[in-house]
Amino acid sequence: MQRLISVSNRLPVQVEKRRGVLSFRTSAGGVATGLSSVLKSRESVWVGWSDTPSNLSDKELKTVENVLRTEHGCLPVTLSRREVSGFYQGFSNSVLWPLFHHMTVFAEFEPEFWNDYKSANQRFADVIIGEYKPGDIIWIHDYQLMLLPGLIREKIPDAQIGFFLHIPFPAFEMFRILPWRRELVDGLLGADLVAFHTEDYAHHFLESAKRLRGVDDRFGRLEVEGRAVMVRALPMGIDFKRYRDAADTPAARRERDGLLSASAGAKVILSVDRLDYTKGIPERLHAFDAFLERYPKWRGKVRLVALTVPSRTRVKRYLELKDEVDRLVGVVNGRWGTVDWTPVSYMYRSLPFERLVGLYSAAAVGLVTPLRDGMNLVAKEFVAANSGGTGVLVLSEMAGAAQELTDVVMVNPYDRNMVIEGIAEALEMPEHEQISRLDAMSAHLETHDVYRWAHEFIEALDAARCTQLALTEHPLNPEQRKRLLVDATAHGRRSVILDYDGTLVPFASRPEDAAPDGELLMLLDGLAVTKGTSVTILSGRDRDSLDRWFGKLPVAMVAEHGAWLKEPFDDWVAAAPLDETWKEDVRPILERATAHAPGSFIEEKEFSLVWHYRNADPDTAEERVRTASEALGPIAAGRKLALLEGAKVLEVKVDGVDKGRAAHLHMGHSEEEFVLIAGDDRTDESMFEVAPPWAWTVKVGSGRTRAKFSVDSWREVRALLGELLEVLG
Ligand code: GDG
Question: Which member of 245, 304, 509, 578 has the greatest number of CB atoms within 10 A?
Fold first, then answer.
């Protein structure tokens, strides 16, 4: 069984030093709990920042490292104080956290923070790379470590890496604000699997990847330089049984009874959150205040118990929030409280687990109203602790949990009126309805618990790996490469047929920018002058471009996907008689598409019209490809035209003229001759199709293909041609 390397900002073990004695305290958060089941059957190690006290001697530090490793399976990452401040308080919590939760006004786009974020991620990467053994699985958690997949991928290309984001991924319009948006997307694209709590977040990420990196999305699968990256929604669950069963423990019962008797018949509304501005705590207090104003009958008969856990106390905005909440609690209590009734009981601390569950189970209403929340586990825990009994959950539609918990009283936390009415509805809901709603939600949470979540993640990561393997099913391995070279030298005659864009050079935004460089020209020239070797450049490009670029080389050329043929230093010959009247029917349709998709343009060739949309908005372009194709269909059928969808191009051309036919003319047809054909897009498939069985056909990039072998990129094609030249020269 493969070993799992879990990576999170903090280790699940905290080190303390009190009165000279070191102690280790494990804090089993949701993630650690979920993983515990996956880990039963495999070896594991946890990598994270350990906030070790700063006053430790070198000897103590060694002891800490040792104990963490041997007793807790933890590998600490050490960060300097400065890094912690810039990386953690700075970029993570003062840039990414507010931005991803739509609170841009709190975001501080300090370039220094970014530098610390990069260097801290690099430190994590260094530790993981040092620890990694072939076959390990790496599971990285959360927004503090978004560069990590890319950094690891650079050093360990075949590592199996999964990433889970615990907070929302914002829509592109919000994400684009971030000055370092491209770097973050690139970082995440280093993973094999990128997973989120909801479909919406997954969709937002796909959108940003498409727009910022131009990568293609095929039903949640992105293709990045020949690698597949799976993007999935995997909502995190809780340890359902633990919360349900804890409600019956003596400690929980004590807490519940204590609270109920202190409430003297008043119904308890409970809220539990970290003190964070995303949780909507001031808004909730305002709503509760307004509720008491609107519903005098509930005064004295209801109380809000607000448990807020201190959080990020070194970030300024959190201190300000604390002051605001303190003040508001005072305002509401001052306004409505009496000598024997306090409307809001406010606790600013954390309670032990059983006491927390006791509170959940004592509450008549759970009031969970974050302004934005990745998932919100409190909502799920409230349901679990009350399952089989009564209780109503009022839940913000802005929490990821709202996608699953549909039997709640759903509210928009920004709509005070809706929250007021939501509280009233919850307090008055008939018992039988409370029970049936809780039953439905409990059934879901029991089956979709945190253990299942962890298993599904690992399964999805394995599936992502299988997809990778299927995509590059026949990568040209070193053994076959050697055979190819031996085969080439064993034959006296050889034809080498090469597509151009994407096969010999990378794609450029403007077609005219993809001119061949010196290295490529030398390579082609070298091969073409080798005795017995014919080289053909077979491209969708027009004659002029090919002539300009390759006219001085002894190579054959095929332009416009096979419409024009040219032997070395000879004249161009048309593959079919020239008739351009069809263009008058086709051009207006492509012009309409161009008008709707700024950035796109039409290229005219003698045998074809090509609509290029690489630089247009991808969604608009996709939509236009569809409408244009529909309109072009009947015209194409009537006028014997073919419609081709290539790499960000839609091409309409005279039918019967294709790369396959042209390639057929240029390749040898007996086993006496060595044949090598390489191409990258759909138009090249026709060449692979006509290739004889003994030919070496090579597809550049991933995707289904008729070629026998595949390589990752144009760089590999060049390397292969270089080796060929070496053995033949
Ligand atoms: C992030 C995302 C996402 C709270 N008070 C006490 C206590 N807690 C525990 C709760 C719950 C956890 O803390 C809070 O989890 P949430 O999910 O509500 O919120 P975040 O801390 O913001 O977590 C969030 C989560 O990651 C997981 O992916 O759901 O959206 O923001 O488990 O029980 N626990 C104890 N005493 C307390 O006083 N023992």
Answer: 304
pLDDT-based confidence at 17, cuts 50/70/90? confident
Identify the pLDDT of residue 456: 94
Q: Are 690 and 664 in contact (CB under 8 A)?
A: yes
**Tokens standing for residue 683:** 């138009």
Domain with CATH 3.30.70.1020 in the chain: 583-654
Looking at the domain covering 240-448, what would its CATH class be? alpha beta
- Ligand 1 pocket member 376 (CB < 6 A): yes
Q: Does residue 326 carry a catalytic annotation?
A: no
Instruction: Provide the whole-model pTM.
Output: 0.73
Is the per-residue pLDDT at 473 higher than 60?
no
Centroid of ligand 1 to alpha carbon of 53 (angstroms): 25
Tokens of 451: 């253990």
Superfamily of domain 478-576+657-728: HAD superfamily/HAD-like (3.40.50.1000)
Residue, of 254 and 475, whose pLDDT is higher: 254
Residues of the chain with CATH 3.40.50.1000: 478-576+657-728
CA dist., res. 687 & res. 697, Å (int): 9
Nearest CA-CA partner of 76 in 13, 153, 159, 148: 13
**Ligand 1 in contact with 309 (CB < 6 A)?**
yes
CATH 3.40.50.720 fits 4-233, yes or no: no
Catalytic residue among 136, 217, 499, 542: 499
Answer yes or no: are the C-beta atoms of 677 and 686 closer than 8 Å. no
Question: Vertex 495, ends 490 and 501: CA angle to 5°?
Answer: 130
Report the share of the chain in percent with pLDDT over 90: 70
Question: What CATH superfamily classification does 583-654 receive?
Answer: Trehalose-6-phosphate phosphatase related protein; domain 2 (3.30.70.1020)
> Cα separation of 680 and 538, whole Å?
12
Confidence of residue 228 (pLDDT cuts 50, 70, 90): confident
Task: Say how far apart CA 83 and CA 520 lie, in whole Å.
Answer: 44
Q: Kindly indicate the confidence band of residue 663, based on its pLDDT and cuts at 50, 70 and 90.
A: confident
To test the pocket of ligand 1, the residue of 377, 393, 445, 448 to mutate (highest count of ligand atoms within 8 Å of its CB) is 377
What's the confidence (pLDDT) of residue 471? 59
**Res 218: pLDDT:** 67
Average pLDDT of the chain, as a whole number: 91
Residue pair 383/441 in contact by the 8 Å Cβ criterion: yes
Q: How confident is the model at residue 322 (pLDDT cuts 50, 70, 90)?
A: very high
Nearest protein CA to atom 19 of ligand 1, as residue: 376
Residue 577 has pLDDT above 90, yes or no: no
Decide: 381 in ligand 1 pocket, CB within 6 A: yes
Q: Which atom of ligand 1 lies nearest, measured to the CA of 373? A: 30
List every span in the chain annotated with CATH 3.40.50.2000. 4-233, 240-448
Q: Is the CB of 404 under 6 A from ligand 1?
A: no
Q: CB 456: neighbour CB atoms within 10 A?
A: 18
Pocket test for ligand 1, best of 272, 279, 305, 347 (most atoms within 8 A of CB): 272
DSSP single-letter state for residue 504: T
